[in-house]
Amino acid sequence: MPAESQIPIASPNQVRRFARWLSLFYGTTFGLGGTYLPFFPVWLKAIGIDPSWIGMIAAAPAVTRFTVLPFVTGLAERHRAVRGAMIATAFATASGFLLIGTQHAPLAVFLLFALTASVWTPMVPLTDAYALRGVARYGLDYGPVRLWGSVAFILGALVCGLLVDIIAARHLIWVIGAMASLGAVIGLGLQPLDQPKRAPSELHGARALLRDPGFCAIILASALIQGSHAAYYAFSSISWQAGGLSGLTIAGLWALGVIAEIVVFALSPRFTLAPSILVVVSALSAVARWTLTAQEPPIALLALIQLSHGLTFGLTQVGIMSLLVYRVPGHMMARGQGYLAACSGIVSASASILSGAVYARYGQGVYYVMAAMALSGAVVMWFARRRLADHPASDHPQSVASGG
């Protein structure tokens, strides 16, 4: 491509060092998610926090995605300090989780976690921005580097699941804090990258995205389908533990979902359905998944249900990212992704708070609400499918989805 002539030639050692440290940083970033998602709610319950507060606390990261996240990433980009922001947010995240571990009062935990989420949620978009600049400079493939994030998520969940049967649940926060601290230290190994000057942003064109009904349908359908996972993220480990499942079994159930997600990403080059139809299929899969989960299925059926995460999450990601590639001009893609994150954050935060209140009263019945959300996403995408002017799946949409 024309820009390649402006990219300085790097030695093989430079390329390997960049890829190695970036892979490690991706690994610790998503490994933190692997320890946090299944077991942070278990820790909250262990220190005596009730379900309504758990729902509110779990909503904090979703809220920061449409409030603080765009400010942090924009500030880092304006000051040409993406790598510095990655390191700073990693250390701030580690400090936040360690401070949270010293608190047991619901309000104190909520306030500290909200501050921690404000520096934690920008880490993935900042890392993606750094990675894509490195891909352009060194000619690397993004997928193989990003893949280590998904692998580390599984390992983090399994290790934490093993530890939950060895240590008291009230100490799980220190495992989460240790993973965050490891990521902060590894961040120091990330090498600086020269960054080209950016062209002035086209605000008028960016606002036009929100006047495009097709684009609005994409981000709304995505927010509804992905937001329908809110009860699963907040309460599945708690309900499984209450049902007598061991920590390692719980971690294994989470790992099954992520493995299925990885398989979907790997197979996505073979998909031939239009992206909008892929999204409808994923939404209907979510309706079936949450309806079955509400029945409190036995472990064997639950394991099969967990494999549907590849459809409910992974296939949604493949379809939505493909639609955005075709719908949003390249020079507005960052803003389009920002609108997607903001819409998803609003819906996920609302769903998390609602799920806490519903779970406290109806238990597993909360999943019927999640099924209704997913069904709404299917309806939105079904009626928008013609407007979206789908392209054939062979037009390489999978190159986007490979990043997960």
Kindly describe this structure:
- With 404 residues, this protein is mainly α.
- It folds into 2 domains: 10-192, MFS general substrate transporter like domains (Growth Hormone, Chain: A), CATH 1.20.1250; 203-404, Growth Hormone, Chain: A (Up-down Bundle).
- It is built from 19 helices and no strands.
- The longest helix has 35 residues, at 12-46.
Question: Keyphrases for this structure?
Answer:
2 domains, mainly alpha, Growth Hormone, Chain: A, 404 residues, disordered N terminus, globular
> What is the CATH architecture annotation of the largest domain?
Up-down Bundle
What series of H and E elements makes up the topology?
Answer: HHHHHHHHHHHHHHHHHHH
**What is the domain total for the residues?**
2
Distance between the termini: 25 Å
How would you characterize the largest beta sheet? none
From the alpha carbons, calculate the radius of gyration and give it in angstroms.
21 Å
Low-confidence stretches: 1-5, 196-204, 390-404
Q: What is the approximate shape?
A: globular
Assigned CATH class of the largest domain: Mainly Alpha
How many strands?
Answer: 0
CATH level 3 topology of the largest domain: Growth Hormone, Chain: A
Helix content range of the residues, please? Answer: over 70%
Category from helices, strands and their pairing: mainly alpha
The fraction of residues in strands falls at: under 5%
| Mean pLDDT rating | 83
Q: How many DSSP H or I helices? A: 19
- Under CATH, the homologous superfamily of the largest domain reads MFS general substrate transporter like domains
